[in-house]
Structure formats: structure tokens, C-alpha cells
Specification:
The chain is mainly alpha-helical and 219 residues long. It is built from 10 helices and no strands. It starts with a helix and ends with a helix.
Amino acid sequence: MEAVQKAISLVDLNTLESPSRNPEQHRKICCKKAAKAQPDAPSSPSKEPVSLPVIRYALYNLAFPDFAIEMTPQFLDLLTTVEFYRHLNLDRTKHLFPQFLDDSSQFRSSGDLDPDLEAELSQLTYELTGMRSLFWTIVVHCCQQDLTHRAIFHSITDFWLRFNEYLPFLTNAGPSPHKFHHGMSEGEKQALMATIATGSLSDVIMTKNQGPQDQNQKQ
């Protein structure tokens, strides 16, 4: 932990540039510190919450300049932590300013804040409510991309291990090791299954199962 804290102190978390500037510190942060982020961190006194600037830095450097596909599970866990904070902020806003989330299309001031500030907060709250679908779209396509990658470049055993992690409810594989399944709706589950089932993934799996000898016989 001390090594990670030292690495963080050497990095400007407000500068989102290529990890090639400081690859050693980047790896320590992404793999050791930020990857430990837990969705329940703020409400758990036994766990040290990972700050959003650290998570943002890790997510950016896992995604750019090239997506670190081998770290897809870590990327998704970090992204899920951001989604948790979004949901937490939305719940608190709903409690403090319930008029922001009612069915009325017209902004109604509570009179507790400066009108301009409250109008801006209302707009931000409106934008927050639509971020869940964007989050799940990223999750679904990351899962599909990772599984396709593993089907092509890894063993079929590695593929099925990751498949069971992403879709444990299909194989009775037990509790999911990934945070993004927490709070998943039935519609989101169906979207995850449908997206993974589409495309060329099934063809890749069939080719992998056949092996090179069977492929040569077909030719």
C-alpha cells in the first residue's frame, strides 16, 4: 500500500495523458490501488474509499491510447464504482430536492438555493438519470469484446472461465466475481445475453472447439 501511495503522489491526476509518461506509476495505481475500489466503500468503515480522481486516472489510462483488453474485468469494476457514486448522488439529490425528479417538465425552484444554482443542479440531475443506459452499453460491449478476444487468442478453457464470470446466471456458476452484476435489472441481463450471442462469437467458438485438424479436414 505504501508503494501505491507513493506512486499516486508522483502522478498529476488532473493530467489525463498517455500512460507512457509514467508507466510504472500507472501500473501500480491501476492494478493495486484503483482495482480495489468497492461499490460499498463509502458505507463501509473497514474499507478505504478510492477517490474519484484516482479512479478517473486509472480508467482513462486503461482505455487510452489503446484499450487494455486483458484488464477488461478491472476496467469494468472501476467503471461500476463510478456508477455506484452516480447512483448514490442521485439518491441524495432526490432526498434533498425531490422536485428535480418529478414528472413535471418545468423546473420548480425550492427557494432553498440561489435560483441559477438550483436550475443548474436540476439540469445536472436530469443528465445523471440517463447515464445508467450508457453505463450498461459500455459493460455489454466490453464483455463481448473481451470474450471474442479470449476465444481467438486464448485457450478455450480460458474463454469458458471468463464466460462463466460474465454470465454466471446461465451456468449456475455461483455468485458473480464482478461488481457490474450488482443491481442488474432483468432487461439489462437480457441485453447482455443478446449482445454476447450476436456477431461472430459463436463461429469463433465453434472453430476453436474443432481445432486445427478438423479445420484442415474440412478444407
